[in-house]
């Protein structure tokens, strides 16, 4: 049975550089045969998502995203940086999970931003969030600035080397699951 790698991009519009970054990681993982991939955007959660106070009351489109994330063998998550941190709605989605729901799940964290100093979101916001859930967070996070994109839908070719190194780590993290399947 193929492993499932799910991407989640905390963007509210398309096209989105954040989605492009998450998709590039998923495409690289898929090309290496690490598993089947799927991607969801925050925009897929619908206009009333912010009013969801608990998972049991989630609309079907929100539950579909939560279910896919929980059942995934690995995650690739991304957010744009606002005011030095992940977006509030990005965090809200993960607040709907039980604290044990994502335990031991390999996670690659990614972010996009406008300034180099916002790269700290990887180590000071995203990594702690997923460590709270007892996830296995890749040591290499990916942070991309506007010059790393040819357009909102295309990274510059030189960025691929960074993605490759991160996916190398994901492959190692998934090795026990791949051996068992």
Q: What is the first-to-last residue Cα distance?
A: 6 Å
Average pLDDT metric: 96
**Helix proportion range:** 25-40%
Strand content is: 15-25%
The largest pleated sheet is described as: 6 strands, parallel
Content-based structural category: alpha/beta
What shape does the CA trace take?
globular
Give the CATH topology: Rossmann fold
Alpha plus pi helix count: 5
Feature tags:
Rossmann fold; single chain; two-stranded antiparallel ribbon; globular; 5 helices; 181 residues; 8 strands; alpha/beta; six-stranded parallel beta sheet
Overview of the structural elements:
There is one protein chain. With about 180 residues, this protein is of the alpha/beta class. It has helices at about 15-30, 60-70, 90-95, 120-130, 160-180, and strands at about 5-10, 35-40, 75-80, 105-115, 135, 140-145, 150, 155. It has one domain (about 5-175): Flavodoxin domain (Rossmann fold). It is built from five helices and eight strands; from the N terminus they run βαβαβαβαββββα. Strands 1, 2, 3, 4, 5 and 6 form a six-stranded parallel sheet that branches. A two-stranded antiparallel sheet has the order 7-8. The protein starts with a strand and ends with a helix.
């Amino acid at each position: 049975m193929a492993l499932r790698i799910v991407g989640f991009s905390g963007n509210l519009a398309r096209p989105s550089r954040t989605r492009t970054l998450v998709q590039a990681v998923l495409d690289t993982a898929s090309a290496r045969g690490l598993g089947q991939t799927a991607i969801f955007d925050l925009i897929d959660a619908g206009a009333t998502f912010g009013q969801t106070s608990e998972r049991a009351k989630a609309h079907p489109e929100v539950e579909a995203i939560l279910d896919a994330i929980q059942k995934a063998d690995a995650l690739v998550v991304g957010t744009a940086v606002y005011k030095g941190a992940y977006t509030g709605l990005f965090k809200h989605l993960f607040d709907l999970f039980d604290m044990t729901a994502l335990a031991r799940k390999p996670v690659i964290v990614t972010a996009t931003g406008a300034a180099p100093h916002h790269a700290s979101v990887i180590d000071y916001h995203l990594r702690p969030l997923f460590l709270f859930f007892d996830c296995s967070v890749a040591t290499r996070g990916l942070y991309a600035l506007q010059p790393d994109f040819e357009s909102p839908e295309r990274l510059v070719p030189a960025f691929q080397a960074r993605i490759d190194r991160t996916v190398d780590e994901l492959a190692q993290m998934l090795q026990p699951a791949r051996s068992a399947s």
